[in-house]
Structures are given as structure tokens and as C-alpha cells.
Design brief:
The complex is a heterodimer. Chain A is an alpha+beta fold. Chain A is 30% helix and 23% strand. Chain B has two domains: 75 residues, Beta-grasp domain (Ubiquitin-like (UB roll)); 64 residues, Orthogonal Bundle (DNA polymerase, domain 1). Chain B has six helices and five strands, in the order ββαβββααααα. In chain B, strands 2-1-5-3-4 form a five-stranded mixed beta sheet, with helices on both faces. In chain B, helix 3 crosses helix 6. Chain B is globular, with a radius of gyration of 15 Å. The two termini of chain B are 26 Å apart. The chains are: A alpha+beta, B alpha+beta. Chains A and B meet through helix 8, helix 10 and helix 21 of A and helix 1, helix 3, helix 4 and helix 6 of B.
Chain lengths: 721, 155
């Protein structure tokens, strides 16, 4: 296949270099970027509309505004555009849309934010319309050339046919003319039952390059004359640099500069290893601020104090909880807790920035939001948005780490400003990445439930103490003291429970928290485990107990039944295996899971099987959805045992030896059951994790009688077998 | 100057003998297919072949690689896509893709030692970490690649 040397000689590569030189970019990349087609578009290809570029030889390039971090949006969105465009899928490739161009073209690509499983569901409408509009314009151009009515023409696989005469024109032949036509005011979108390209398990567009090691991640950016930087931030969150002694580091081989900022120190050198090695020799005295003594114990005390807050905020109220509790047959209470967790993307945070002599700022980074990166870059450099560009690279994992916080872009640009005229690639060491994340919040939740004489759940109360993600990332967004990411799944239960009171105590502490795959998912763990406790107390089957509280037609019910059926719920599991289930909706979809586990005599937990049923309304690529179900399973599995603990104000874990990821042998068999019911668009990047941990913990309890209410598992003497 | 044989080509690099091979490949030879993940020889994203054996290049001083045959992901596919890479595409293994080149290097090496690996062989040899959770497909693709009739190509 293509080597780098061959790549340099390939026609596309030559076109790109010529085009970028012609565009005055002045830079020469030492690898192929997904921007090849756009650069070439100015020469021979035609932009039919902002989303679609067609070459004379019929190659179609579809622009993707959202980021690709493994979830498959790059391919799924292209499928949706191609579906309506009626082009030949074999001719389709994709490229990222430019944030700078998005600013200059009045936000023509809309949002670039890629989180909350939004990629497909929040842009499907306008990207499909872009495909349909382009198809109409291409047909109109062919009809004009033939001097016939457009209504007599049809398009299929990139070929337009005039019905009465059977004359044919290819998209590549009419694209230039088509672009001159006014886009149709309104276009009809195809019904999902008629889809030919969408809805099918097509191969991903990014896979061939990925197996060859060709995609450029932020860590791989290489520019002529580029230098490398490694940074050290205050080990205690919020700390500031007090003094720096870089005399030894400065003299080390390859070191070009020591950059001192308010809250970090960076070494710039001619290779990353040299920069990082020298950084280790810089003596930094930190002003750690007020949190130098913070620990797991102080954080636990902070959360516990929240539960007792007389001014706790009310997130939901229904019926009369106090009255209901006074007349119930039985009251069950439990407390659940979980730990801080790092995202631990395999690619550490990285950003290459180049402040040109004229002040224009160019940035290459792995970002979940190209526009947020552009804002961060321009703001840091003090230039208008038009004077900055962000090149979106492929992401070596995202999971929420690279969206709202743009710390890495601010740092990259700050370093580049100190090296004006020279591009600098900043990459964090793994240790820096593990200890400076925006962590999945730790939380403490107390629940209380009242059952009537029939064992029916009639009163439910929950007090949630949890740091607020919104307070860290979007200050002011939390209304009336409520952060929806901290209360969801408890404040919006699908179960018919007449009396409910859900309260929230925002307790933030100093550990920065952030969106971590399925923000708020720990509430699903608590709720669904507690429901099993209630079912057990009322002597009901966990499935029947839930179904009795779900209206016919409720999609939670549908997925629960689908998962239970696929997993053989009600039939006895193999000897020594326990089975548990859970259902949680979120991110636009409904998900129910059944887990099968075994536990050895010495506490070794093995998850054998996870059946997950998801209703996302529509399914654009079933194979990518299956991959996401597998991905969510492994992410959830890790979250059972991983932990980020705090001591002396800092995170104790530093690398994969003490923040362990599951290994290949730990992976259960994952079976995704797709039950799309149409009429709504849900996501797949996160729903799979929602019922996972509760299903596993319920299975452990079904097997051993041990009810786990606190994570990580090691607190309960369990570990992976 | 240290002489390195990388993917059949000899390079002379002027670097510290203790610089790990990974950084020579990435920052001095511009071979970016080999990734940095942990720097402590744990995650396997930096896996390359040294005289046919898989090694974590982030922990290997470049001096220890001098005079040996180094093969990276770029070299494994120099003469047409390797059957492991084809199997990876067929089974849609990668998600983000960052760890996948290391995974592929480990899988190629496993299949050279064990042409028909069992699941236990795979568990033992594939110690690479993947945060996206591609493990089930890695296993499937290795079995698929093993099922190909043609003998393993020497890298």
C-alpha cells in the first residue's frame, strides 16, 4: 500500500501541495491531511454546496463538521448526505470542514461540537437536506443541458437519466453548472425504509488509513522547523508558579526555551523527548493555593455535608412524599457512592500552534469542538476569529475530554506566542494527562423508597451530592442551583411513582470535573441497583418490578423486553453465573442491558456477556452502532475498578500501571439488539454504557447476595478475574 | 552517529544513545505511525519489531536497536497491505485508531510465532491497551487472518 514516499509522489499529494502553496498557506506538511480534496477543489472540482464537492471524474467529497474520535460519525454523516445525494458510495470520501471558514461563511456548517452523542442526531436534518438540495441542482443542470424538464429526469448512483430518451450524464459532468443554480427552497427527505446507503453496515471511510498508520493525530503533526514542547502544571489543581530554576534544563541538548506561564512551565526543544527530559530538571516552586491538604477524606466529608444541607435545591417534586411515607408498608434506604475517573484518552492532550510573523494563528489539534478551539486560540492570541485557523486532526479518543475544556489549545498558543514565527507542538506526558483531567465527578447519593402492601413503589426520595460539571465548564449555566448532568436519571425517571422528591447539593471542591462519557451515568447505576434492592425487598422479579411501573408503549419498556428476551431472562443461567438487568434512557436513546457474571472464591469478577438493546429511533450504520456498544462496555468495565484518588490536593494515579484499563481477556461477549422505532433520532456514542454497570452489579448480587453500593470494586474486595 | 536499519533503509541519526527508539522514529525519522501512549513500556501503542520480535519502543534506548532490523507499521505494509491489515479492515477493528498500529504490530508478530493462535494465545500476546474497546474485533480479526491459507509473509 502507500508509503509516505509514494504518498509524496501521488497526484493528490501534488495537487494539495500546489493548491496550498497557491493559497498562500506557505506551509508544507509532511503527511497527507484529510483536507486534500478541499484544497484541490479550487482548481478543478466544484463545491456544489458547502457540504459537497464533486470532481470532474465523479469523486464526491463530503464535508464533516463534527469530529471523529472513533465513534464513526465521519462515516455516518457521509452516509446520510450520500443517501440523499444519490451518488455512488464507492466514489465518496470525507474531509473536515474548516472552523475559520465556518466563521467567514456565516456558520454555514453550523455546530462543530461533538459530544453528548449528538453528531448524527443533531445534524441529520440539515446534512440530509444538503444532499437532497445538491441532487436537485445536479438534475436541474442536466435538464438544462438537455433542454428538458427536470421532472423527467432522475438520479441514481451519480448518474442522471432523462427518462423519455434515456440520455445520461454523470455528476462530474454537470457539477460545475449545477453549482450556479439556486438551491431549492425546500426538499423532501427520503423515508428510512427506502434508504440504500444510510441504514447499512457500510465500511468506515477512515479504516484503511488507520490500519496503515497514516491518519494524523494532533500528536503526529509535523511542520518544517517545528519545535516540541512538554509542560508541567501545578500538581495541586488551581496552583500557580511561584518560582522557576531552569539553569540545568536550559543547558541540556536541544533545549530552545523555557516558557513560564501563570499556571504552567513548558520546555521547548528540538524533540519531544529532549523537551520532556529537560522539563524533569526544571525546579518549579508552586504556590498550591488553598487545597494543598485536600484528600479523599475531605472530599467525602464535603459530599456528606451536602446531604445534610437544609437549603438543598429541589430538582423534582411530584405528589406528597411526606404523606406517602407516613402510610407505606415498608421503607427501604440506601446510600451509593462513586469515584473520580479520568478519561485517559490513548492520545494525550496535544496542540501544535504557530503564531505567524503577521499575527495569524494556526492551530492543529485533536478537538471535539473545532469552533471552541478557534475561540480559545483567537482569544489567547488576542486576534479576531478571522485571524485564526484550527485544523482538526483525527482524535486519539475523546470521551468528553477534548470538547468544552480547551486548556490544551490555550497552552499551545501561549507557548507559540513565546516562540513567535516558529510552530511548536505541545504534547502532554501521560502523567500530566492523568493528573490534569476534567474528571468524572465523584458523588454520594442517598435514596429512600416506600413500598405499599402489594410491594408497589409509591414514594421515592433522593438526595444527590455531586460536583457540578456546568460550574466548571459553563459557569452560570446551572439554573436555581441545579446542574442537570448531576441529577438526570433520578430527576426524570420514566417509572410511574406517584410521590417523588429529588434534591441536589452542589458541592464542587477543587478537582475539575467534566463531561465523561455519558455525563450523569452514575445516577443510572444508583437508581437501577436500588430498584433491584426494592424488587428483592418486595419479592418481585427485577424485570416484572420495572415493567409494572412502565406504561405500555414506553420505549424503556420496549428495550427492557428486547434485552430480556435476547438474554433469555427467566431461564436459569449456567451454574455459577449470575444475571442482572437495568434500563436507562439518555442521549436521545433508550438502552436496556442484561449482564452475566461469575465471581471466584477469592473475589475475581468476570463479566461474560452483556446484551444491550437500544432504541435510537433510526440507525445509520448498524456495524458502527455495534462497535459503540462494545466500546461502551469496555469503558463501563474499566469504571468499575478504576479510581482517581486525591491526596495532598493532587491526583495520586499517574499512568496505566495505577489507572488500569481492561485487557483483551477482560472483554465480555457483547450483543447489541437494535430496536429502532423511528420518528426520533437518538445517539449511540453513550447510551450503551448507561445500563452496563448496574446490570453487572445486579448480576453480582443475584449470584452472591452481595449488594455493591460503592465504587470502585476494590472497596468491596472484588477485582477482575 | 547511530546507524539504524528501519524498514530496510539505513539511517544515521545524531542522538543521545539513551533516547528511546520511539522518539527517534517519530521526531527524527518522521515515522509517526508508531505512537506514544504511556512512556513506561506498558500500553503497547509504540510496538515495533526488532529483529522480528515485538518490542515497546518507548522503553528501548536507541543504542540497543543499532545494527538490528527495525520494522514499523510503515514497513509492514510497504509491499502491499499485510493480511492482518486486510483482516482489520474486513472486521472494522479500529475506532479512534490511535492504538491500532501497535495492536497490528503485536498481531503480526503473534501470527508469525503461532500461525493458528488460540484465544489463550491471543490473551497472552495481545497486551496492548485500547481505550475505545476494540478488543473483541481484534480477536476476531486475528483469527480471520490466521485462517488465510497463504503463509505468513516475513516482515
Amino acid at each position: 500500500m502507500t508509503t509516505r514516499a509514494q504518498l509524496l509522489k501521488s497526484p493528490q499529494r501534488r495537487d494539495f501541495l500546489k493548491a496550498s502553496a497557491a493559497a498562500g498557506g506557505g506551509f508544507m506538511l509532511e503527511f497527507s491531511f484529510p483536507f486534500v480534496a478541499r484544497a484541490a477543489a479550487g482548481r478543478s472540482a466544484t463545491e456544489v454546496n458547502a457540504w459537497i464537492v464533486i470532481h470532474p471524474d465523479d469523486r464526491v467529497v463530503i464535508r464533516i463538521a463534527r469530529s471523529e474520535m472513533g465513534q464513526g460519525t465521519y462515516t455516518a454523516l457521509a452516509q446520510l448526505v450520500a443517501e440523499e445525494l444519490d451518488c455512488d458510495w464507492a466514489e465518496v470520501s470525507a474531509e473536515f470542514a474548516s472552523p475559520n471558514e465556518n466563521v467567514r461563511r456565516d456558520r454555514v456548517w453550523g455546530s462543530m461540537s461533538t459530544g453528548g452523542s449528538q453528531g448524527v442526531r443533531s445534524s441529520q436534518d440539515y446534512v440530509r437536506k444538503a444532499g437532497a438540495a445538491a441532487r436537485e441542482m445536479l438534475i436541474a443542470a442536466a435538464a438544462a443541458q438537455w433542454k428538458v424538464r427536470a421532472s423527467e429526469c432522475s438520479a441514481d448512483k451519480g448518474v442522471i437519466t432523462h427518462g423519455p430518451t434515456q440520455r445520461k450524464l454523470r455528476y462530474g459532468q454537470v457539477a460545475a453548472q449545477a453549482a450556479k443554480f439556486r438551491p431549492p427552497a425546500d426538499v423532501a427527505l427520503r423515508d428510512a425504509k427506502d434508504w440504500k446507503i444510510a441504514g447499512r453496515p457500510l465500511h468506515r471511510l477512515d479504516t484503511p488509513d488507520k490500519v496503515l498508520g497514516k491518519p494524523v493525530f494532533a500528536a503526529d503533526v509535523a511542520l518544517p522547523g517545528m519545535l516540541h514542547a512538554s509542560i508541567a502544571q501545578s500538581p495541586v489543581f488551581g496552583g500557580k508558579v511561584k518560582s522557576v530554576d531552569a539553569s540545568e534544563a536550559q543547558a541540556m541538548r536541544g533545549v530552545k526555551k523555557i516558557v513560564r506561564a501563570e499556571d504552567f512551565v513548558a520546555v521547548v526543544a528540538d524533540s519531544w523527548w529532549r523537551a520532556n527530559r529537560a522539563l524533569g530538571k526544571v525546579k518549579i516552586d508552586w504556590d498550591v493555593g488553598a487545597y494543598g491538604e485536600a484528600s479523599d477524606a475531605t472530599i467525602a466529608a464535603m459530599l456528606r455535608e451536602g446531604l445534610a444541607d437544609p437549603k438543598i435545591a429541589e430538582a423534582r417534586k411530584a405528589g406528597d412524599v411526606a404523606a406517602a411515607f407516613s402510610s407505606v408498608e415498608k421503607i427501604v434506604e440506601a446510600e451509593y457512592a462513586s469515584q473520580y475517573l479520568a478519561h485517559a484518552t490513548m492520545e494525550p492532550q496535544a496542540c501544535t500552534a504557530w503564531v505567524k510573523p503577521d499575527g495569524f494563528v494556526e492551530v492543529w489539534t485533536s478537538t471535539q469542538d473545532g469552533m471552541a478551539s478557534l475561540f480559545a486560540a483567537a482569544q489567547t492570541a488576542g486576534v479576531p476569529l478571522e485571524r485564526a485557523e484550527v485544523h482538526k486532526t483525527m482524535l486519539g479518543g475523546g470521551f468528553g475530554r477534548r470538547g468544552a475544556p480547551q486548556d490544551f489549545v490555550r497552552q499551545g498558543v501561549t507557548i507559540a506566542m513565546a516562540m513567535r514565527g516558529t510552530p511548536v507542538k505541545m504534547m502532554w506526558s501521560r502523567e500530566e494527562d492523568m493528573q490534569h483531567d476534567f474528571y468524572r465527578p465523584a458523588s454520594l447519593v442517598k435514596m429512600r423508597a416506600g413500598l405499599d402492601a402489594q410491594g408497589k413503589l409509591v414514594a421515592f426520595e433522593a438526595k444527590i451530592a455531586c460536583p457540578s460539571i456546568l460550574e466548571v465548564l459553563m459557569p452560570g449555566a446551572a439554573r436555581n442551583g441545579i446542574d442537570f448532568t448531576a441529577v438526570r436519571t433520578l430527576s426524570d425517571m420514566p417509572y410511574e411513582i406517584p410521590n417523588q422528591k429529588i434534591e441536589y447539593a452542589m458541592r464542587n471542591g477543587h478537582v475539575p470535573v467534566g463531561f465523561w462519557r455519558a455525563p450523569g451515568q452514575q445516577n443510572g447505576v444508583y437508581r437501577e441497583c436500588f430498584l433491584d434492592e426494592l424488587a428483592q425487598s418486595a419479592r418481585w422479579d427485577p424485570l416484572d418490578f420495572r415493567l409494572a411501573m412502565l406504561q405500555p408503549g414506553d420505549k424503556n419498556r420496549l428495550v427492557l423486553e428486547a434485552a430480556a428476551k435476547a438474554a433469555g431472562w427467566g431461564t436459569p443461567p449456567t451454574a455459577g453465573v449470575g444475571r442482572g438487568l437495568a434500563v436507562v434512557e439518555g442521549f436521545g436513546s433508550y438502552a436496556a442491558g442484561v449482564a452475566e457474571v461469575s465471581v471466584s472464591a477469592d473475589g475475581g469478577l468476570k463479566v461474560h456477556r452483556y446484551v444491550v438493546a437500544i432504541d435510537s429511533g433510526y440507525v445509520v450504520n448498524p456495524d458502527t452502532c455495534a462497535a459503540q456498544a462494545e466500546s461502551n462496555t469496555v469503558y463501563g468495565l474499566g469504571a468499575l475498578t478504576q479510581s482517581c484518588t486525591v491526596r495532598n490536593g493532587r491526583i495520586e494515579q499517574s499512568n496505566f500501571h495505577d489507572f488500569r484499563l481492561p485487557l483483551i481477556g477482560d472483554m465480555p461477549k457483547v450483543e447489541l439488539v437494535l430496536v429502532p422505532t423511528g420518528d426520533f433520532w437518538g445517539g449511540h456514542g453513550e447510551p450503551g454504557i448507561l445500563p452496563f454497570q448496574a446490570a453487572v452489579l445486579n448480576a453480582v448480587c443475584a449470584l452472591t447476595g452481595k449488594r455493591i453500593r460503592s465504587l470502585p470494586l476494590k472497596k468491596e474486595d472484588l477485582r477482575f478475574a | 552517529m547511530i546507524k539504524l536499519n528501519v524498514n530496510g533503509r539505513v539511517h544515521e541519526v545524531d542522538v543521545e544513545p539513551e533516547m528511546p527508539l520511539l522518539w527517534v522514529l517519530r521526531d527524527h525519522l518522521n515515522l509517526h505511525g508508531t505512537k506514544y501512549g504511556c512512556g513506561i513500556s506498558l500500553c503497547g501503542a509504540c510496538t515495533v519489531h526488532l529483529d522480528g520480535e515485538p518490542v515497546r519502543s518507548c522503553g528501548l534506548p536507541v543504542a540497543a536497536a543499532a545494527g538490528k532490523k527495525i520494522v514499523t507499521i510503515e514497513g509492514i505494509s510497504a509491499h502491499g497491505m499485510h493480511r492482518v491489515q486486510k483482516a482489520w479492515i474486513e472486521h472494522e477493528v479500529p475506532q479512534c485508531g490511535y492504538c491500532q498500529t501497535g495492536m497490528i504490530m503485536a498481531a503480526v508478530s503473534l501470527l508469525e510465532r503461532r500461525p493458528r493462535p488460540t484465544d489463550a494465545d491471543i490473551d497472552g500476546a495481545m497486551t496492548n491497551l485500547c481505550r475505545c474497546g476494540t478488543y473483541a474485533r481484534v480477536r476476531k480479526a486475528i483469527h480471520a487472518a490466521a485462517g488465510v491459507a497463504e503463509p505468513a509473509t516475513k516482515s
